Amino acid sequence: MNQPVKVFLTSSAFLLALSLTGCSKSNNTEVAQYGKNKKVTQEEFYKAIKTSPSSKTILANLLIYDALNEQYGKKLSSKAVNQEYNNYKERYGDQFASFLSQNGYTTTSFRRMIKINLLSKIALKAQIKPTDKQLKKEWKTYSPSVTVQHILTTDKNTANTVIQKLNNGTSFASLAQKYSVDSSSSSNGGKIAAFNKDNKQLDSSFKDTAYKLKNGEYTTTPVKTTNGYEIIKMIKHPAKGNFEENKQDLINNLYDKWAANSTVMKNVISQTLKDQKVQIKDKDLESALDQYKGSTKSAIN
User: Fold this and answer.
1) Tens of pLDDT along 185-243?
2) Angle, nearest 10°, between helix axes 107-127 and 262-275?
3) Can you spell out the DSSP letters for 211-235?
4) What structural domains and CATH numbers belong to the chain?
5) Could you tell me which residues are beta bridge partners of residue 34?
6) Is the pTM above the cut of 0.85?
7) How far is Cα 271 from Cα 217, in angstroms, rounded to an integer?
């Protein structure tokens, strides 16, 4: 239902220029030709690419990826990357290729985006450890994750029809398969992954309504959300329990919040670049990482 944040997207032309310039014995190697014996050399191509407004951003992304991969790559398995990729592929189904195209991805650059996201989270956990004070503060507003089924319809009348059939005893799963326009969950009886109140991908009306339901209950009036009209059924609504038994959830929640905080993640990247002693030798591109210079201390209370 949701799209990932576009974190990393390389320009193949610029990376090609970098690799050709770095590896070739002569920068006069021909890249293209025109007219009578006229040619474009690697050096000319590289200089032209450097004048592009996006060249510094592309170089910064390349260096960030390489630094993260060098420092934390051994902690990230190809299985984890493939699993995340396949999750998106399954979510979008026949629309996956269209999703990639609309967001400016190739399959290769999308995998790279996934990898840099996962590496960034590994870096975050390596650099910052939650304190007891932070965990106890998180506990004050903590709500355990709930699991629901849902049926998304495009209009209120259809939603009311679904509710009437539920009242008459028709199974939720069969109605989800027939009426829900959410293709990512309809074939699974409308069941979606467990979520908590901090989830930013779900509509706030959806979350607020869901948390009011007890196990086995469903909404008896359509719930208006940004995507349409929802019918929600609670599968598992656990009690809050105590601090110790939910400590790992609290830790995970904090990491999720920090990962969504651009200032925190900027500091994590800054520390990684510092650890890897990253330097830009080309004077025309030396300011590419300026936004990551300065303090690497976390902006976490």
Assistant:
1) 999 999 999 999 988 889 999 999 999 999 999 999 999 999 999 999 999 999 999 99
2) 90
3) TTPPTT-B-SSPEEETTEEEEEEEE
4) 12-130+250-292 (no CATH), 143-236 (3.10.50.40)
5) 38
6) no
7) 48
